[in-house]
Amino acid sequence: MVESASVSSVPELGEAAAFEEFFLAEHGRLFQALYLLTGDLQEADDLAQEALLRAYERWDRVSSMDSPAGYVYRTALNLHRSRLRALVVRARRVFAAVPADDFSGGVAMSHDVQRALAQLPRRQQEALILIEWLGLGSEEAGRVLGIDASSVRGRLHRGRTSLRELLGEPYE
Q1: Cα–Cα distance for residue pair 128/115, rounded to 1 Å
Q2: pTM value?
């Protein structure tokens, strides 16, 4: 009986082909966005795989959404947040305070920009990555983050302003 439950969650052959096309189109961008967010190749890969697996398991519903990509990005961000919360709890138990880490690693952008990005609040980071790096519009980014497009634009504005201040130069 357990097997039949797992079989029913696997997409049909035509749906599997549609998911494969979706996967090929989105995996690279999702991984890059998560790498910018986490600063860790393995963590970004794990999050991307888990988010895409969850989409695959629900592909019959996800494929009919206005933005299947938005679902996957939102899932990945929620997974990341959950992992961060779990890490914070463990760190508090061990150290009684969470240390501020420098997530500057090797990514295809300048060390200074990555360092400045890491200093921004998570919400501003997410807005900047979704809009500037992935090229989403504020409406789609809002769907990914579960907020209004106007809130995304506000976070984006504050993030850009903070980056300019941190870098001491205009951010474009």
Answers
A1: 14
A2: 0.56
